[in-house]
Amino acid sequence: QKEVEQDPGPLSVPEGAIVSLNCTYSNSAFQYFMWYRQYSRKGPELLMYTYSSGNKEDGRFTAQVDKSSKYISLFIRDSQPSDSATYLCAMIRGAQKLVFGQGTRLTINP
Amino acid sequence: DAGITQSPRHKVTETGTPVTLRCHQTENHRYMYWYRQDPGHGLRLIHYSYGVKDTDKGEVSDGYSVSRSKTEDFLLTLESATSSQTSVYFCAITRAGRQETQYFGPGTRLLVL
Q: What residues of chain B lie within 8 A of the CB of A49, using their CB?
């Protein structure tokens, strides 16, 4: 069983929809939780990071962490075609060790 | 843009040949990382460095070695490339020692025939 599970999709939604992306994890030692966006043939780009349970908002993006359920989410409001990308969750356990989900491929249809 | 460049950006090589990938950063960051990205596996850590001449292994280090003789350069070497090392390789840095803020380079696509 992988430490971090992420539905690979693909996920296709119409423009303007609310998108929910999720990851589950098994190791309660994870402390920081990140979301990266990766466009085709590009490097991952850090979107947001959170430390504790709760919500963190940045523009149209909201990251949510529920440590009791070992579950994290990224919500995208008013989705745009430019949001079409692969979204990767990542978590830190111990020093220097990021563990990534396998990524969810998202397409926003105009 | 995190001031990271990778070279080469694309490479095709044959099984058994040595290959060196270079990561160069311009912002004097202490921590640098090498990852590989494969379908179904996401990004996996190969090696990382926490200073000049200070390196350590990640989860998929077999068949790879690294060197860091200058702060700005982190080299990844495949001593004898195998087809299973066909992948996209990403270098990353951490700003201000904060692991939750890793920034990635553009990647190197390596094909081992």
A: 100-101
How far is Cα A27 from Cα B105, in angstroms, rounded to an integer? 28
The two tokens of residue A36 are 């990266």
Average pLDDT estimate for B15-24: 98
Chain B environment of A95 (Cβ under 8 Å): 99
DSSP letters along A38-91, please? E-TTS--EEEEEE-SSEEEEETTEEEEEETTTTEEEEEESS--GGG-EEEEEEE
A63-94 pLDDT tens trace? 999 999 999 999 999 999 999 999 999 998 77
Residue B93 scores a pLDDT above 70: yes
Does residue A61 belong to the interface with chain B, where contact is any CB pair within 8 Å? no
Q: How far apart are CA A84 and CA A94, in angstroms?
A: 32
CB atoms A90 and B106 under 8 Å: no
Which among A23, A28, A31, A107 is positioned nearest to A71, based on CA atoms?
A: A23
Place of tokens 């989860």: B59
Neighbours of A85 (CB within 10 A): 21
Q: Name, in order, each residue with C-beta under 8 angstroms of B39's C-beta and a sequence gap of 6 or more.
A: none
Which residues from B are below 8 Å from A90, CB to CB?
Answer: 43
Contact B111, B92 (CB under 8 A): no
Q: Are B100 and A34 in contact (CB under 8 A)?
A: yes
